[in-house]
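User: What would this chain look like folded?
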Amino acid sequence: MKLALANIRKGKSAMVSLFVFILVAAVLLNIGLMVMTQINAFFDHKVEQLKDPHVTIMMDDTSNQAEYEAFIANYPGVSVEETENIIKMNMAKFDFGNGELSNSVILFNADAKRDVAPLQLIEKRNTTSNSDDEIYVPYSFKNGGYTLGDHFTITYQNKKYEYQIAGFFETTMMGTSNIGMMKFMLPEKSYDKLLNELDDQSEGMMISAIMDDQTQSAKLETEFMREFQRSTGEETIFDIESLNIDLVKSVNTLTINIVATILVTFAAIIVLISLIVIRFRVSSSIEDGMVNIGVLKAIGYTSRQILLSIILQFILVSLSASIVGIAVSYGLMPFFGEIISSLSGLIWSQSFDITMNLVSIFFVAFCVITVTLLSAITIRKIPPVSALRGGVKTHNFRRNHFPLEKAKGSLHFLLAMKSMLVHAKQNIMILLITIALTFTSIFSMVLYYNIASDKTAFINLFGSEPANVYIMVQSDANIKELMSNFEKMDHVEKLSIFDLIQTKIDGQTAYTNVTEDYDQLENNIVYEGRQPKYENEIAISWVISSQINKGIGDTVELKYGDETGNFLITGLSQSIGNAGQIAALTMEGMQQLHSNYQGSTLYVYLDGISNKDFIDNVQEEYGGP
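Assistant: Here's the prediction, encoded as structure tokens.
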């Protein structure tokens, strides 16, 4: 211990820098590991705490309601089944953050009695008024810039519905925009008023089920959809839509796990840098302290004692830095908790995790001991006499690089080259440290730029097509003529038909993109294989692929309305939207199922004009919202 403390005092600056490296690594490693190991349990706990359903089935066809309810109630493992009326606004729009979201809005009667997902408000506006313009919104809207009492507008079918936010609630099932639909609650007076204003197509019902084993939720959903998609025959405008908790959890925790993985990766890089520093420090201290090592051995110290003193000094630094880093990580967890809450729509409550704390500490300690031991093991092979001579043996046959009497060049350059080759090992270590530090610094800046500044690459990662404006075309309009007219407008760089329709792929719900040429799109979300080119091809997401157990080269049955067709899978795609249940089809492929299909949505890419000004120009010429 005395030798270790003496060595630490001797190299204070090196030990301080090593302390900082390991502290930062411990902070990132502990936060990343705690999030990665706790996020699934956290989500499951929230499902249980909020009494949220494991499976939800939504439909507008209530003629077979008793049959639907009986299937769910009698399904093995279902402990609670509940049915209630809902209002669905398909492709409604509302402001969120600095932009506008288009999503399916599901509205519930907040005053209705329910056993499944009862309303539990986190915050509620203090008011005694029985207003008919109040609305309760998911907790994720707090991160979208909303507070109690703020005005909230839903635009649906060219009409605006104005509300005031009266409260926030947590929900695991439809609390974020990632799923393609969001849950809202209206007091009974507001609910009845809206119901009277909308047409019958917006009325529907939802069947919710809680199971003894939530891992069976996907199986229940699949069997229900297969049973009643066959028996109902003709699909309606609302159709039957479903969600299961396992799928929702995988989608909602995907981004959180990406953030946690990045933290762990950075921690691993910093630990690697620290180990290189230790390797460099140990080698240098052995060379510089060779005579001292000889003296210690001459007066009776064993090689084992000297070796342990060297290991001990780095263990003391690494353990103290790790413990301080663990403490700092708990201080920073509220900040990361806000990030998790914004991504999941749930309030993150951090608990003390001694297991992950010990894993972080022992991981760093193990790496430090291993590298120090391997670096200092040469001490055992140095005889005391050789050490007292400064490590010089009887003869030295090392090659003389750049002999001064023969080599050409300036004296300073030759001496520098000789010194560099003599200390080759140390220079290689310095090179590795510089490479690792440069990589970490550049990667951090690039990551920050792509997330906080120019978000294009980060958005593309999640499957969004970055058009400036999209235009919904009425069914009786000639979309080809409109495209020709828009192409002639100033500042229009290009435009494409890009529809999103609901289909069934081997019985699974899929939100299928339809366009004429996927090469014209900005974002290619296929990560394996390719997008479809011909009328008999289709690309599906990894979520659908895992659900139907099929991949590239397999054939699937696609159902749209009453029509079905077989298509060849050409690629697997990634998307966080619409619960990841995304597919891609060409216009020609779609016309095999619906010969008169021409598309209904135009994606417009602009150059040199703001989105708002272009929209104003279109509205002025063509009218519409």
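The CA atoms of residues 103 and 177 lie 7 Å apart. If you want, I can go into more detail on any region.
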